[in-house]
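Much of our argument rests on the idea that a fold can be written as discrete symbols. Part of our work consisted of pairing the sequence of a single chain with a tokenised description of its backbone. We regard such an encoding as a compact summary of how the chain folds. The amino acid sequence and the backbone structure tokens for this protein are reproduced below.
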Amino acid sequence: MEDIHTKGIWMAESLQQRTMSQEKMWLVITHIGDPKAAFLLVFPFTYFFSKRAGVAVLWVAAISEWLNLVFKWMLFGERPFWWIGESRLFINKQPNVQQFSSTCETGPGSPSGHAMVTAAVWWVVVSSLGSFLYSRTHSVALSAAPYLLYVVMLVAVGISRIFILAHFPHQVIVGSITGFILGIVLSGRVPEGRPLLFFFSFSIALLLSTLLLHAGLEQLGVDVSWSIALAKKWCSRPEWIRLDTAPFSSLTRDCGALLGLGLAQYWKPGGWSLPWAPRALSLAISSMGLYHVNRLPLPVQPPGLFYGLFFVKFVIVPQIVIVLVPGLVYLFTHKKKD
């Protein structure tokens, strides 16, 4: 692995030197590939196009991110920004690389969560869009266009993660392949219309199984928090270390979103039936609502309070998109029959 890591560092150096003028573009792309974007950006846009596809996006995002957390704990992947210093292989010749505000994630590096969740979630989007285009046009070429964009997006997200020193190339490739497989498998098993008990049980099961895995690894003498210490040690700026990139933030986000999805379908089974114009209005209002929910500052001490509020934040997300905003739009735009 040492040789693979070393080549990955020199690849990142070359990439930064050749494309540093596109720094802002890479940072935007890495934000688009953030698993959080699947919940706050892709989910509402997809839901108001197709309710089933929207539910599938939230479902696939939560399960794929949870699996990514489990894989990371089991695989102990390094990250470039700390491996450069820890390896002690570059004492005589330091690579000419720099870190960015999105570099210093605290979880292990393998596989890439950005690549894995992006591949899984956007497979749902492009397959739904491809089917829609084919049903309307019967053009194979036109319906294949979303799949081409899918490949371009995966490549772009992968390059952005290498560029900012968050991942090695092999971690991006493994994440993309794993996410692609998960997207195909999970999109065919969407829990649309399932009872609230299913989502409550599933959310609790994910939470408890992860805590048990964490406790079990610690009992075996495995330091599950090893990556957090390295991230703090080698990050260029302490303020770039954020609690919302910690492994347990991913867990609480996934469990909260799944419980929220169950609650939303319980409050309003099937969602609200809206024409295209009210749907567009609902999308705009939902996006603004989610933007402000995401920006709500949470206390980082004690960590348990942060994780609890982070959980609640993502329970709220499906309520805004599926129940509250479409319900208000329906109330104000629906014309009663005489």
User: Anything to note?
Assistant: The radius of gyration is 21 Å. The chain has one domain: 2-333. The chain is about 75% helix and 0% strand. Residues 2-333 form one domain.
